[in-house]
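Note to self: keep these together.
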Amino acid sequence: MKRRYLRIVRKAYRYLRHPHIRKRPWLTALTKPLFQRDLWHPCRHTVAGALSIGLFCAMLPLPFQMLLAALASMRARANIPISMAACWVTNPFTHPPLIALQINFGHWIRQHVQIPLPFDKTTEIAFLGVKVVGSPADFVVGFLTIGVILSILAYPIVYGVSMFFPNRGKRLNAAERLDQNSSH
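Structure:
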């Protein structure tokens, strides 16, 4: 799986370094940060940040979530491919149940915390035979809260899983990588 990931990343990296793309002046501000190798190598710090960004962007009800996640990852210096892949949590099959969950969770939070919002008209929506009663305010509170919770949970999950890796998920420098490759 690691080889497959590296192959996909190398292809994307080579495509972005193509002269046709590099010569466009309006793209240089966007592509210049993309060429930093640290944004493409997985280590626990960059993967945790990328997963956090990707999961938050996945909960937003916007088109082009992957583009938003990639731009935020470049700004936060997180792993770009991981943040884009994390956006696929919401796909055409999982999006309707997630919307119902966001509305119900937002309604529950608004009942217990009593958040007053101006657009508080309750409507009934049916998703795949499931009736969801809520308001646009419930949806907004729900997707923001779930996005923040998932982005916070990404860090302990990544750091916990990285404890089982041989190098604890740390970024290796060139000499350490050579030693590790020669021992295998």
